Amino acid sequence: MTVAAIQKIIADGNPGIVPERGKENRPDPVVLIIGGGYSGVALAIRLLEQRRKHLRIVIAEPRSALGCGQAYSTTETAQLMNGPAGNFSIHPDNLTHLTEWVERNADRYDIVVPPGGADNLFIPRGVFGHYVQEELQEAIRALDDGVTLQHWQSQVIRLDRRANGGMAAEFADSRTLHADLVVLATGVFPLAPDPALAFPASDLPLATPWNAEKLDRLSTARDILIVGASLSMVDTVASLEARGFTGRYHVISRRGHLIQPVRAAGDPVDIVDPGALPHTARELLALVIHARRKLLTEGRDWQVIPLSLRPFILALWQGATTTERLRFTRHLRSLWDVTVHRAAPPSYAAVERAMQAGRFTARAARLVSAARGGDRIEVSLRPRGQQETVTIQVDGIVDARGHQEHDWSRIKTSLIRHLLENGLVRRHDTGFGIDATIDGCVIDYSGIVHGDLFAIGHPLRGVAWESSSLTELRAQAQALAERLDAALGMEETDRHASTLF
């Protein structure tokens, strides 16, 4: 199949690729995937690989490219994956696939592969996005007759249950689609604007880590304030250093936890007894503190702890009460995030160089206000634990808090508001995402488990804490594809029975 044919297949709503189901003249079952980032495309690939006869997959995604989302759309080559290529194959049955792909395409993307291969290489996030896109194309090339995939480049603004079964989706461009099964692969949403940064964009130079044009403008500044001290901060510093920035970075975060780079810490250690898992946040913290002290006495790196905990994360989360989950998110979440999610060493090297040159400072503080003061910006900060504010002068501000709004009650998009208002979904009691079963079946407001509405990835953060990691998404996509296939099989059986009676 040619590239042109593939582009036609995924054309925006091309009706010519939707065949009828033979003699019975019944339309093919439709699976609507709302969201065309990594999780939505990984699921689509798994569905396409099943090569089910008579299936129409529609991906609703406003972006022109599928598979990238916000995270992997960046053109900044200094912004890298926060783990080595060997971790992130999109294929659960071929864990070396991405490594091999990188090695084959190294010249194409100006990647220098070390003599030992690409397994431990940290690649640009934009390159990973291209990898996901190409794997979708490969899956399309192998399609059987009767299986189609379409990209509707628009937003779903409303989803309603149909009286005769399935869901009716209304799009922002006025189209509608009747779907037999729907999957919420919405990803994360941006945080609400910080009130302290609520000024006209023309008044103060404000940027995000992913806006290349605005980063260009800030590259000659003397002082820059970065709000946030996690992975997006590292992206900002790496991108500005690549532009030749020689000024100073002033980094603030609410709790002052500064992210660390990934290090080769060795093999996992037995710090968790599978038969006696901690059930409270306090017990978990005590276990980690004890393990860290033991590792220090043995001269080992504490970074082996996240690796050792990862196999137990889901069991720990599922075994905790809502009260303990809330206690964890309130007191330990920020520390957990900077411990488990660490930065790519090449990107973090830019931070370390700025530190060594005396151009990087970080503190626990909250932004109170920012206003023009002559030719500079006067920023008022309140250090953690203090009532009085301090003032610094900068030339630009980068909002590096990331896309991290997980509480659906705070999200203002039409679809999310409508789903909550009509009771098709309910907010998870932790405030992270929505309620669902562990295998992704969405639970409605009254507690009924949907048989035709599912979720994957970020919406399931409250159900499975690390549901947004790529390795977890890979497993979720595989399991959900099998779940959808089973649901479609049951539906076909019902349809066939209806023709007999």
Write structural notes for this entry:
The chain has 501 residues and is α/β, with parallel strands linked by helices. Helices cover 33% and strands 19% of the residues. It is built from 14 helices and 18 strands. It has helices at 3-9, 38-50, 97-105, 125-141, 212-218, 231-242, 281-297, 304-309, 313-319, 322-331, 333-340, 345-356, 414-421, 470-500; strands at residues 20-21, 26-27, 30-34, 55-60, 147-152, 156-161, 167-171, 176-179, 181-184, 206-207, 223-227, 248-253, 360-373, 376-383, 390-394, 396-399, 441-443, 449-455. The strands form four sheets. Strands 10-16-11-12-13-14-15 form a seven-stranded mixed beta sheet. A six-stranded mixed beta sheet has the order 5-4-3-9-18-17, with helices on one face. α2 packs across α14 (470-500) and α6 crosses α12. It is globular. The model is unreliable at 1-24 and 496-501 (pLDDT under 50).
What is the structure about, briefly put?
By secondary structure, the protein is α/β, with parallel strands linked by helices.
Largest sheet: 7 strands, mixed
Rounded to the nearest angstrom, the distance between the terminal CA atoms is 42 Å
* Helical content class: 25-40%
User: For the residues shown, what is the average pLDDT?
Assistant: 89
Taking pLDDT < 50 over at least 5 consecutive residues as the criterion, the unreliable ranges are: 1-24, 496-501
Question: Which oligomeric state applies?
Answer: single chain
Which structural class is indicated by helix and strand composition? Answer: alpha/beta
The tally of helices reads: 14
Please indicate the percent range of residues in DSSP E strands (runs of 2 or more): 15-25%
- The count of β-strands is 18
In order across it, which strands form the biggest sheet? Answer: 10-16-11-12-13-14-15
What coarse outline follows from CA principal-axis ratios?
globular
Radius of gyration, Cα only, in angstroms?
A: 24 Å
